[in-house]
Amino acid sequence: MTTLQARRPLRATAVTIAALYAWPVLATDSDDAAELARASGCLSCHSQKEKIVGPAFASVAEKYAGQKDALAELTMSVQNGSVRKWGRIPMPAHASLPPADVKRLVEWVLKTPQ
């Protein structure tokens, strides 16, 4: 076995370890927003593609596509709650979520592929 062959497993291990330590840096904003949605309870009533209690994120993105005030309107709906936008079941207010987190969640929802 040559010295180069002996170093290959070590090099592969070093790359694997470096990738594991870099994982938080490699995570995308989308991954962060998805985790925020999980932690904030959004996924109790919503999913990416299918209606649960509230509309699917893809349906929201489709409905608000191209609307210049969509971000502001949806941010207010999440923060303050809304009634009769998607049927009879109201969306409760999420006043305890920081406004920056709400904005990040809404931006993520609006980017959901239809």
From TrEMBL:
Keyword line: Electron transport, Heme, Iron, Metal-binding, Signal, Transport
Signal sequence range: 1-27
Pfam families linked: Cytochrom_C
Alphabetized Gene3D superfamilies for the sequence: Cytochrome c-like domain
Matches recorded under InterPro entries: Cyt_c-like_dom, Cyt_c-like_dom_sf, Cyt_c_ID
Domain named Cytochrome c: residues: 28-113
Domain of life: Bacteria
Protein name: Cytochrome C
